[in-house]
Amino acid sequence: MVISGIIDKHNRLWVRVRVAGYHASKEIWFRIDTAFDGELSIPVSLAVPLGLALVGESEYGISGGGVNRPLKFTASIQWGTKNRLSTVDVDQTAQPLLGLGLLNGYILLADFDKKTLVIKEAENGQKEIEKQPEKETEKKV
Amino acid sequence: MTINPQEEELQTLQERAKEYYSTVKTDIEAQRQENKTLIVGLDPKEKRYWIGETESEVVQKKENEGNKNLIYFIKLSAKESDSREKLLMSSVW
Q: CB A67 to CB B84 under 8 A?
């Protein structure tokens, strides 16, 4: 699975994700924020019309000091060719953000020269395949 | 004025989660991994917790058990980590 994004003239990374709640779904451009440990973050104005399901809250420190306590919602998102569950922080942020939580298990390839961005699955499956012949060789010996 | 039950639950979630965490802290701390931050979801209502590599993994585990309660997320920093999360955990808890 490969997801393509863009790199803007300020070298910020963007990827478009369809987010669905109980009431509606919407394609949203998220800026990839490697300082954000969560999965997705959207402002209240975007979250309310979607009708996301409340799942709880969390607490974490923010740069510059202080603590943020975002409400945590869940949404169904289209992640490449797959539909999957994602948590969504809803707070006073002005910009939709995509954090490291959603990139867990994926490879992020950013070519700042060509301004291209690709997110693809980590090749765990490939590693397993590569290990197989070694096991068979051991058995034969 | 009546309060939505979920809103009432949310108002006290952090406080109840802290109380519950103090009772299971040793068990949770024992599950720390090398070089990997984990996410813990605490349900103080049913005294349950779930651990995963991501928040959505924690939510999926909870929902697979039919649990509908609100949960409080905390980070379980890696064993040898001096990360910001570890410092935050020590200050929060």
A: no
- Nearest by CB to B55, which of A61, A71, A87? A87
**Per residue in B46-87, pLDDT tens?**
999 999 999 999 999 999 999 999 999 998 888 765 555 555
pLDDT digits (tens, 9 = 90+) for A10-50: 999 999 999 999 999 999 999 999 988 899 999 999 999 99
Cβ–Cβ gap A71/B10 under 8 Å: yes
Residues A25/A18, Cβ–Cβ less than 8 Å: yes
Contact between B60 and A85 using a beta-carbon 8 Å cutoff: yes
Q: At CA B31, angle to CA B30 and CA B37, rounded to 5? A: 125
How far from each other are the two terminal CA atoms of chain B, in whole angstroms? 34
Among A54, A57, A55, A50, which Cα is nearest to A19's? A50
Quote the pTM value: 0.81
